[in-house]
Amino acid sequence: MRAKLSWAVVVIVSMTLGGASVVGLDSLRSDEPRAPSIIQSVSPSVDGVAVTALADVADLYEVVRPSVVRISTQSGRGGGGLGSGVVIDKDGHILTNFHVIDGASQIDVRLADGTSALARVVGTDPGNDLALIEADLPAAKLVAATLGNSGDVRIGEFVIAVGNPFDIEGSLTQGVVSGVGRTLASGAGRPLRQLIQSDAAINPGNSGGALFNQRGEVIGITTAIENPSGDRVFVGIGYAVPIDTARRFLPELLQGSTIEHPRMGVALQNVTPSLAERLDLGVAEGVLITTVEQGSAADRAGLQGGLGGNSSGTGDVIVALDGEPVTTFETLAQYIDDKDVGDQIEVEIVRAGERQSVSVTLEAWRSS
Fold first, then answer.
1. Catalytic entry in 59, 125, 129, 199
2. 99 is an active site residue
């Protein structure tokens, strides 16, 4: 059965909790707060650099909890939703998922200490399921999270997720990084790419919350779960948008932009030895264009698609972009993702056994 992707956001008017089970921890403090104990641990990296880590999960939670907020929304259709967000500065800017605030006519933010305020959308990045909102909250009340470096994340690292699953505020779950560089179809438009996979439980309401490493740094924004049964509950596979992705586009989000992402407008298939032999492609590696979307950037550039045995014949095989070899769909997609809409790239193809170069001006992903 094909796995179904579920957004980890809960709709107030239609969601019943049923028998769902989550780990919930309230933000409780004693009258005499203690300083979190800090230890030095040796990183498993080859250079053996010492890194600072928190001694236990309770200390880690105490440090990071104030930077994670509850987000509730109301829409013009009378519905509403719940999610989470991460404070990134003292100006009240909060990073969350786009699907948490999409279509909202009113956004309310509540801090860990109960302080609440209305918020407005500043900038959005639907293609990465990210949004930046701003809440009118006192600077003294705001605790900004420390943003880490998701490019250094390794499979097996300890992580915790903090958010508001099923509106159980300030819940914490723990696990490890199960995978990196994951790609998920988002239902319409651009797939989500380079996601961090984790087995720290996330559920509806966790969306927009934080995935922290052991040093208390945000390495991802929790966004989706995958469940083969189609149920909207966690079964061990959760995903987070890497914080490096958010950091890349944060300056534009702060300026109020809606981020657009580049594409060519083609469907692709990795070339395998058997495929190359069956279709007589004349090349052993590359990415075969199976379909070219009518009116797309690829169509305007004259690229051709096809799987052989039809009127269009066999499609072009992309073997390089701007002189950089392309051997898989993933390498091609990542190269294009690093470009901007309107950039021109040189696409080296093999057509009917002959190599040639085609210039393609990248266009923006369409909403549907």
1. 129
2. yes
